[in-house]
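Internal ticket #5521
Category: modeling
Description: The requester needs a full-assembly model to guide mutagenesis choices. All entity lines are attached below as received. Residue total reported by intake: 205.
Assigned to: D.W.
Attached entities:
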Amino acid sequence: MTEVRAEMVANVWQVVASEGDEVADGDTLVILESMKMEIPVLAEAPGTLTKLAVAEGDVVQEGDLIAVIE
Amino acid sequence: MTRAVTVGLRATVRAGVTEADTAAAMGSGDVPVLATPRLLALAEAAAYAAVAPQLADGFTTVGTSVSLEHRRASPLGTEVVVEAELTEVDGSRLVFGFIARVDGTDDDVVLGAGTVERVVVDRARFVARAGARDS
């Protein structure tokens, strides 16, 4: 199981993947926005996206869970 | 995304202090001297100009952070010159140092100095993103 967590305070701009998706290492899961930049959050391992913990418009803090890949 | 955005790129902007540039006119105070936000605008303009020619079509920079010392008052008619230099490149994040002086004199007095940070963005995506958030 791999947990994907936010590396900074950011707004969730777009949710690209859906729970249940098969993802490959490097696939974009969500796109965050911080300091006017778009910051893609990528899958860090291949597997099934079993949990997507954020929705568009959410504010995430550093360390917050974004997704779980199993 | 970029051609050659490298430390050392620089640009200079010049402006005379007119009534419209004063703290009284800009609402940042009530005295008839160069407004601090106007000085900042010149610094941002110089930083923007320093890298703009190096960016690929469709890309631009937007301001994200600033530190400014406004050290000396500039009365109406002062010719101000502001030079910005790119001092750090961290991915899309660009850090510039700037310095403002009186132009056209032997007087090497520093009016102001500081740093500005800007990030490289896709202009169309950025504008669309900013608009989408408000709707």
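Resolution: model delivered.
Comment from assignee: The CA atoms of residues 1 and 56 of chain B lie 6 Å apart.
Ticket closed.
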